[in-house]
TrEMBL record:
It comes from the Eukaryota. This is Pirin N-terminal domain-containing protein. InterPro entries: Pirin, Pirin_N_dom, RmlC-like_jellyroll, RmlC_Cupin_sf. Residues 82-155 form the Pirin N-terminal domain. Belongs to the pirin family. It comes from Trieres chinensis (Marine centric diatom). It holds the Pfam family Pirin.
Length: 193
């Protein structure tokens, strides 16, 4: 249910998500599994657009890796790769990606000049704003199996923020912005710090 009407361009409140359509698990390969949940019911779920749970593993001995890469290239599949998502555009919403503790990395590159591999315990917040191109690939190695598990949430921006400049920030382990601890006092108030 949407919260109270907020002034244009300000923070909105979502009181609850009573239900959501469940999309079947996407077919995957190479040890992968993606479970997306789309919030398509317009104002009832706004600002939530998509929640996806990715769980992938890659073994260097997997005989399908090389043929799949070659087939994807030959067929001109621009957005999907066996080990991630090639360069593609987004605009007008935020993408929050959280890599679970213990996971290998997720490699990011974007049209803003950013390039980074972030691992378990780290989140990426990407404001797509007026538009950004980016690619995301699972970290793979030739000497051992790699495992990556993450959640990704897409949040619609208010109309007054949709053309904001795009930006990418990181929070968590191995960043300049560590996770902040939340503590509750006797009155039920909380302090972040």
């Amino acid at each position: 249910r949407p919260g109270p009407k907020a002034p244009e361009g300000s923070v909105r409140t979502v009181l609850s998500v009573d239900s959501h359509p469940v999309i079947p698990v996407w077919p995957t390969w190479g040890g992968g599994r993606v479970v997306p949940v789309s919030f398509e019911d317009g104002p009832h779920h706004d600002p939530l657009l998509l929640l996806a749970h990715h769980k992938h593993w890659f073994d260097p001995r997997d005989p399908l890796r090389a043929p799949f890469r070659a087939a994807g290239s030959a067929l001109g599949l621009p957005y999907v790769d066996v080990e991630g998502f090639s360069m593609h555009p987004h605009r007008g919403f935020d993408i929050l990606t959280y890599v679970l503790d213990g996971s290998d990395g997720f490699r990011h590159r974007d049209s803003l000049g950013g390039s980074r591999t972030y691992r378990g315990g780290t989140a990426q917040w990407m404001r797509t704003g007026s538009g950004v191109l980016h690619e995301e690939f699972w970290e793979t190695r030739d000497d051992r199996r790699t495992d990556v598990e993450l959640f990704q949430l897409w949040v619609n921006l208010p109309s007054g923020m949709k053309l904001d400049p795009p930006a990418v920030r990181y929070v968590g382990k191995d960043t300049d912005h560590p996770w902040l601890e939340t503590q509750y006092d006797r009155d039920g108030d909380y302090n972040i710090g």
